[in-house]
User: Which sequence fits this backbone?
């Protein structure tokens, strides 16, 4: 009895310890919905195809489980001898095909909208370097580099002794964030200067490769002010994990103010030279 | 009667004395069973080396921050892990199984081209010794991913030409193996073994062999262009010289997608052998299984660009590759449904090969579902290059290809060794592998969807919990495979005597020869017509 109680205490404290260790982190299991019309559509498609898969899986695995429990030799059953049925084959070819067609239609619609970069209000050119990003605002003449913030950079060195949990937004923070206005259609051009990178901010629902010698385009329309974080999504060498992206979405007035500050700063810099 | 005589005859030739004689025997053997054994042991060794690399990867990802290796070495571990597992473990294992089983399944005395067979195996140890040696070279091993994308791969140090040459050697070995299999299956079938009477493992391998011949030269071409770009001043993939880095990806994936099916079609064949045996019921829809396999093989040539939706293809291209990719779900679904229909109203027992085959059906389907999700292009923009993709292809490769190979080993081991394996240990191996495999790879779906990119040695803290779980699962899975090694060695050395038929429900020519299969089988071809008549009367 006492042994059992001691055992239980150990077990429960073990479980508590297990739950307590990752106190700071979260157990996120799904894609974020995002803050753009496209990201919401993508989320919808993702959930739709997910539930279609769950339904098919439940059906197929259900039949299989039933069979495993009922059609086992240990229950004394005799194996049937059927091994062919043309109609059944036709049915389970045609029905999945129809399900796929019903999935393909909304997916194609969203894809067409995603690739329509016409009538943008603002163009941001993104250039990938090993291992940082350069941002150029083509209309507003602002340009700067953006790389991993120094605190994360210190902590991420091999055996730095710094606890990543103590660093705010570890590996997802930069020195100079991209500032973009909300409710504007923003065209994003990507290219690279050395190897292939990919610019990805999950909340904006966009990802495109940045390829040396070529310019790709995508667009986004951010509906809520906020700070959105992302990372390079194409292996680009040693520090691929350490070139994050931070987008600060602000109101239009704040954006104009920021542009004025930036251009003022560069003018001041030129003047002082 | 004749087999007994053969056995005695065999005995006379076997067991040469001395180390040198032993080495010479294995170096010069042209016997399909010997070469099959060589392939299988080689693949087992590569599986453990590639697996050890996976342990290093999971050790680094055990918690956020860099504790074990520097980022460059981490990248070379992910690169080498993939190359070792794909070209060193899975492909040679399938060729080994083909060598052992194909001649016996079609009633042939050996492979059609025995000397070529010897050569195609003995290239491999050199190819992989060279590949592994790159880890000790100036600039480290290859670290640009197994896909070797230009221009990043051109930054590789001294390892670069060795990487390219070892890929060439692997390609030569695979193409020769494929030629041999096609020549054997088309020319050496016993009388009455018509094409549509061949066991499904023979069918899937025949189709796989055609895929190999079609695409391995494409890979060789792609890596040769990399080589000339690096050393001979060409600009195939260099935009500054008028080249195109995306063209490399198109060429690579024109090889790469059929390659995916090269890694899974023989597994379909294995499962199609095992499920009927333990359900004691003929395979449901044999003909539709053959046609589904052929359809998958055909479709595999027209879907390659779904690996590169984010490179900025024209809309029409994206739509075409999305639709074509979704279409693959149809023949794959047919296969799954046929397996379930084979179980339906059978009389099942659950020996280790059957357990692995059943978990193959379920877990491969899960990998298929995430594949279908990845086909939806707008959603793929989110999934692409995240851990969701890592989860997807590990679900089709670990409980897919690897579980099928494991099932095949348990299924045919009594035929190879003449001994039954220990059923209890086999079941322990199954449950440990199954549980740890899911613990490793299922959480990867979650971190991928939550935004963790793949191929990174360190990650933001919100991904810490699931990575911790994955790492524990991976260590457990790795240790479980040592049990597999122990079981195999134990069975080779002794155990309960196996009968010729081994399994109560087993049908096919390989079960008509004694266990262990004598060195030479079917020197006189069996009459399959007669056997068919008997089976149907």
Assistant:
């Amino acid at each position: 009895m006492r042994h059992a109680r001691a055992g239980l205490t150990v077990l429960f404290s073990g479980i508590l310890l297990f739950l307590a260790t990752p106190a700071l982190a979260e157990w996120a299991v799904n894609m974020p919905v995002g803050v753009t019309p496209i990201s919401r559509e993508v989320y919808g498609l993702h959930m739709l195809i997910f539930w279609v898969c769950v339904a098919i899986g439940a059906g197929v695995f259900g039949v299989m489980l039933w069979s495993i429990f009922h059609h086992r030799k240990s229950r004394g059953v005799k194996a049937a001898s059927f091994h062919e049925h043309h109609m059944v084959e036709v049915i389970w070819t045609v029905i999945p095909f129809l399900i796929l067609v019903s999935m393909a239609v909304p997916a194609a619609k969203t894809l067409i909208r995603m690739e329509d970069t016409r009538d943008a209000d603002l163009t941001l050119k993104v250039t990938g370097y090993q291992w940082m990003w350069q941002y150029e605002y083509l209309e507003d003449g602002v340009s700067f580099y953006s790389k991993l913030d120094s605190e994360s950079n210190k902590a991420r060195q091999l055996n730095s002794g710094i606890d990543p949990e103590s660093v705010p937004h570890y590996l997802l923070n930069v020195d100079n964030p991209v500032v973009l206005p909300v409710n504007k259609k923003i065209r994003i051009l990507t290219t690279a200067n050395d190897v292939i990178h990919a610019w990805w901010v999950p909340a904006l629902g966009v990802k495109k490769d940045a390829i040396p010698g070529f310019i790709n385009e995508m667009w986004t329309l951010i509906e809520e002010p906020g700070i959105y974080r992302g990372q390079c999504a194409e292996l680009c060498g040693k520090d691929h994990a350490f070139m994050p992206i931070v987008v600060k979405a602000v109101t239009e007035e704040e954006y104009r103010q920021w542009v004025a500050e930036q251009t003022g700063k560069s003018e001041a810099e030129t003047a002082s030279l | 009667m004749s087999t007994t005589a053969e056995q005695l005859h065999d005995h006379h030739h076997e067991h040469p004395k001395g180390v040198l004689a032993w080495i010479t025997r294995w170096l010069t053997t042209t016997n399909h069973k010997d070469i099959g054994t060589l392939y299988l042991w080689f693949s087992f060794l590569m599986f453990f080396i590639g697996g050890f690399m996976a342990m290093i990867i999971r050790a680094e990802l055990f918690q956020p921050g860099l504790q074990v290796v520097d980022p460059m070495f981490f990248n070379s571990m992910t690169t080498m892990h993939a190359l070792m597992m794909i070209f060193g473990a899975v492909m040679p294992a399938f060729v080994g199984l083909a060598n052992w089983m194909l001649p016996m399944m079609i009633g042939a005395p050996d492979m059609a081209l025995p000397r070529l067979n010897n050569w195609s195996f003995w290239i491999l140890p050199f190819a992989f010794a060279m590949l592994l040696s790159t880890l000790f070279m100036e600039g480290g091993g290859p670290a640009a991913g197994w896909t070797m994308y230009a221009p990043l791969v051109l930054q590789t140090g001294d390892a670069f030409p060795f990487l390219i040459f070892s890929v060439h050697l692997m390609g030569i070995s695979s193409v020769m193996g494929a030629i041999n299999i096609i020549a054997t299956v088309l020319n050496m079938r016993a009388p009455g073994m018509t094409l549509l009477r061949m066991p499904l493992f023979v069918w899937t391998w025949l189709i796989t062999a055609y895929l190999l011949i079609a695409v391995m030269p494409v890979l060789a071409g792609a890596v040769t262009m990399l080589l000339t770009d690096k050393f001979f001043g060409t600009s195939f993939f260099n935009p500054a010289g008028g080249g195109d880095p995306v063209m490399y990806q198109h060429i690579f994936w024109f090889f790469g997608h059929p390659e995916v099916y090269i890694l899974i079609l023989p597994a379909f064949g294995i499962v199609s052998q095992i499920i009927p045996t333990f359900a004691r019921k003929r395979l449901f829809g044999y003909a539709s299984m053959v046609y589904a396999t052929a359809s998958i093989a055909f479709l595999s040539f027209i879907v390659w660009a779904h690996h590169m939706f984010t490179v900025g293809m024209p809309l029409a291209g994206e739509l075409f590759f999305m639709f074509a990719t979704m279409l693959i779900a149809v023949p794959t679904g047919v296969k799954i449904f046929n397996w379930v229909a084979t179980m339906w109203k059978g009389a099942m027992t659950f020996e280790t090969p059957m357990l692995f085959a059943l978990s193959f059906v379920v877990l491969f389907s899960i990998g298929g579902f995430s594949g279908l999700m990845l086909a939806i292009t707008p959603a793929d923009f989110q999934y692409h290059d995240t851990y969701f993709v890592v989860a997807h292809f590990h679900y089709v490769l670990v409980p897919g290809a690897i579980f099928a190979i494991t099932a095949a080993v348990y299924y045919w081991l009594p035929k190879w060794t003449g001994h039954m394996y220990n059923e209890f240990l086999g079941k322990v191996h199954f449950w440990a592998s199954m549980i740890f495999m899911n613990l490793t790879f299922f959480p990867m779906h979650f971190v991928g969807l939550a935004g963790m990119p793949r191929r990174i040695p360190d990650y933001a803290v919100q991904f810490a919990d699931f990575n911790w779980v994955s790492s524990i699962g991976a260590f457990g899975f790795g240790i479980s495979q040592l049990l597999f090694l122990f079981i195999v060695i134990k069975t080779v050395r002794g155990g309960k005597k196996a009968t010729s038929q081994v399994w109560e429900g087993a049908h096919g020519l390989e079960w008509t020869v004694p266990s262990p299969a004598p060195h030479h089988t079917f020197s006189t071809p069996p009459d399959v017509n007669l056997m068919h008549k008997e089976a149907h009367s």
Q: What stands out?
A: Chain B has a mean pLDDT of 95.
